[in-house]
Design a protein that fits this description.
Shape: elongated
Strand content: 25-35%
CATH architecture of the largest domain: Irregular
CATH class of the largest domain: Few Secondary Structures
CATH topology of the largest domain: HU Protein, Chain A
Number of strands: 5
């Protein structure tokens, strides 16, 4: 399901216009992105948790040459599924 299909499905379920749902979804994306980029955690209990994780610097290998390379430390986004969501998908 792509974003357009998601917007249309939500619009159908809620009776709202697709335009309104699209604006709401875009606002949701922006708010979550800003919060996580600022170091906050966004939790939707039972569904998803959005946060960020710090990765330590490490040594890796170039798969093409086998040569060791230095991989710098980084901060990456992380999304974890909640229990209710996991149970629904896993059953």
């Amino acid at each position: 399901m792509n974003k357009t299909e998601l917007v249309n499905a939500i619009a159908k379920k809620t009776g709202q216009t697709a335009t309104s749902v699209g604006e709401t979804l875009s606002a949701f994306e922006a708010v979550v992105t800003e919060a996580v980029a600022g170091g906050d955690k966004v939790q939707l209990p039972g569904f998803l948790t959005f946060d960020r994780a710090d990765r330590a610097a490490r040594t890796g290998r170039n798969p093409a040459t086998g040569k060791e390379i230095s991989i710098p430390a980084s901060t990456v986004p992380r999304v974890k599924a909640g229990k209710t969501f996991k149970d629904a998908v896993g059953s």
